Each structure stands twice: as C-alpha cells, then as structure tokens.
Amino acid sequence: MKNKKLRIIALLFLISFINQSLCSQADNVKVKLITNKGEMTIELYKGTPLHTNNFIKLIESGFYEGVLFHRVIKDFMAQAGDPNSKNETFSGKLGQKSYGGNITAEFNSKYYHKKGALSAARKGDDINPSKESSGSQFYLVQGKTYSNQLLENMASQINNKKKQALLVSYIQNPSNIDILNRLQKYQQSNLQDSISLFIEEITPIATKDFKPFSFSEEAITAYTTIGGTPFLDGNYTVFGQVIEGLEIIDEICNVKTLEGDIPEEDVIIILMKIIK
Questions:
Q1: Cα 134–chain centre separation
Q2: What does the alpha-carbon distance between residue 214 and residue 237 come to, in Å, rounded to a whole number?
Q3: Rounded-to-integer distance, Cα 198 and Cα 47, Å
Q4: For 150-178, what is each residue's pLDDT tens digit?
Q5: Residues near 85 by beta carbon (within 8 Å), at least 6 away in sequence
Q6: Predicted structure pTM score
Q7: Is residue 212 a contact partner of residue 159, using CB atoms and an 8 Å limit?
Q8: Separation CA 151–CA 92 (nearest Å)
C-alpha cells in the first residue's frame, strides 16, 4: 500500500512537471520596457530564436539601461540600441555602432510590421545584401494606416523588386558568362529592342524559383485598422510585439526632432527587464 501511494505521488509530480514544461514552452517571453515617456510590455517571438535569445542576453546584462532612442520619425518608427548613445561625451553621429556581431535574418510570414512591432535594425542592402540584423539596434513601429489598394500596389512593387533581383543574380552568375557577354554586346551597340527581347527571353528562366509575396488577411486587417509599415515586410526581421502601452510609442514618435531625426529632448530607456 505504501509503495502504491509513493507511485501515485511520483506520477502526480511527473504530470505536474510536464504541465509546467508545456506551459513554459507555449508561453512567449515578455519584456518590460521602461522609458522616460512611459512603460511598455513586449512579447518576444519563439519563431525567431537567434534574435530573441540575443535580445534576452542583452537585457539580462543590463546593456539597454541608459540607451537613447536616437532616431525618431513620426508615422514611421523609433530606433534605439547604439551603445554610443550611453556616452554623454560622445559627439559623433549616433546609429553607426552596434554591440555584438550581426545576426542572420529570420524572416517569418507570421510576423509583420504592424503598429508595435519590435524589429531589428540593420545596414543597407548595398553593403548587407543578406539583410543581416544589427547586434543590438532595434526599432518599434508606429506607422500609419493603409488602404487595400495601396497594399496591393505595395505587394506588386515588392514582387517586381524580387524578380529584378533574381534576374540580376542570374545574369551575374559566373556560370552564365555567355548570357552576360550577349547582353553587353547589345548594350555596346545600343540595340534597345534586342535588349528588351533578350530580357523577355531569359526572365522566365531566371525567375523559375520565384515565390510571389502577398500580405496575409491578418496583416491586411492590421494595416488597414491600427496601421504599421508594410513596406518593410520581408526586409527586416520582426521578433516581437508591444502588447501593452502602444500609446507610449506615439509619445516617443511624436516628440520634436532636430536635423537627422534626432529627438530634441532625450528619450531614454531607464530599464528593460524580463518579466516572464
């Protein structure tokens, strides 16, 4: 009888432990962000583990305490994370430095740039074609609302750019040197009609693996109601969302700014801590 009771107790303990583990796995980590403009609660996504884990490590190290929002644009976003912004004697341009190495992009169609999105800043495509994220710089989206027609036009523009990128990559591929030589011959002779026909001929081959981009119904609803920055989707990694205190983003993004989108008065991160 005693052994049976011990087995029951052990089984109940195991079930309790499993339930706790499952709850822990199901819950996203939450962060309290306290600024001199107010407080926000941010939920970090599990679907972007590289960014989420890096952000948690920086928070736990106290890195963000005293960091400024150094770039603020009304109806767009507020950006922070430059370690130089904590140095009161720094007189250079903020936004040029990050803490830690770059992070591989983690694009996930479930996560998009609706108002309150937490996204990783990065350097431009000209020097960062793989769209790697900054090690510490991030931005919070304010954005604005868009009509369905504007979103359709935006998706079309995004797809055109993706096709153009595939075409350029195909032409510049060393294994397609004959293609490049042929194109250059037409260009040197200024044979515009031949160039057009040639591009038309190779486009289906160059874009055979093209997967068209489209906004999800959920994203369309968000962008037409609470707003956001849909033109950034698929270009910058979204790894969290403000779930409490959206109005604080408005407080930050509506401050007066100087040349270069620098807030006239400091907007400071007082504390950032993990709350779950």
A1: 10
A2: 17
A3: 42
A4: 999 999 999 998 899 999 999 999 999 99
A5: 67, 68, 70, 94
A6: 0.82
A7: yes
A8: 38
